[in-house]
Amino acid sequence: MKVAIVTSFPPSKVTLNEYGYHLAKNFVNKEDIDELVLLTDKTKAPKQLDFENSDNVKVNECWSFNSYKTIVSIFRAVLSEKPDVILFNLQFVKFGDKKIPAALGLLLPMLLRFVGFKTIVLLHNIMETVDLKQAGFSNNKIAQKIYSFIGSSITRCILKANIVAVTINKYVEILNAKYKADNVVLVPHGSFETVKSPNFTLSKGPYRIMAFGKFGTYKKVEVMIEAAKILRAQGMKNIEVIIAGTDSPNTPGYLESVRQKYNDVEGLVFTGYVEEHDVERIFTESTVVVFPYTATTGSSGVLHQAGSYGKAVVMPDIGDLALLVKDEGYKGEFFNPDNTASLALAIGRILNNDDYRKELAMANYNAAQALSMDKITDMYLQHFKTLQPVKKSKEKLIGNI
Predict the structure, then answer these.
(1) pLDDT number for residue 392
(2) pLDDT (average), residues 371-385
């Protein structure tokens, strides 16, 4: 079959570009896929097709972030490519952080199905579980109600796709109950890269406490830096704090303000945007991965990555992180997201007990290995096949005649 994926793609900085990369990397090896077409956002640099069989991938750069023309340009690209099935790699700010471009792009799965294409949406988050205030959308309660209404309306449109896949079982329950949907399926997030033989033994050098992502809304790194200062005051001097990533689109300039505030703190490293080829190194060199979150907005890709590289994690027992611990077997040391001392205590428990660190690291590695991206793309293939017309063999047709 000919499969098209609507997604951002490296070197794009648009959300979910890494996920799109790993979907393509694994789909291209499937025998059932004759042709893979990526309907991607436009970038100045060429797309990062540095994986096996990438010659079988066609890239059609047909949309831009925050463009009002995205709905038309992707529609035209699909009409030109004529895929058998279209997979949309989506969350609510996929096509823009401006309201109208973002909303228009999310109508595409419904519109393309209406004209006869088979559409599957991978929806990474749902509005019903997003804390709009914490996520940086609005502090105004009236505005939050308006956002919720718009979000519900868009969700109803998304549910007009043939199939809507979500990454957490709780999302299936919510969508089925609220919208009376019968086309929602569970396909877990999956782990991008699972190292065959991770080294669970610490290398020489400082303890590296690392946070990875886009910061400034519900991901605030100050609590992590302050926790490191507490640990140093307690005698644990050999600590580095690694902030790997960039500002959230909703909070430009956040990390620079943090850098200036803590410019006297030794061992504080801001990596900036982490290119795909540097992700393994960043995780491998870390001792503990910390989630300085006050809320969640979907299944955590960072937790799955930490598991892939066999890392112990420290995280708040909230939202989707708590669900992943329950549903997929990840383990971590928990802390109160509003309490710096609680985070320092949680990090200290791991750094002061290497057997415990290894126990958490191995549990997370096993959880990640159980749901590798290769297995996740197999799940999507099964759903693709349910949308294909049944083809009778020549022998059966002759027999019927």
Answers:
(1) 47
(2) 94
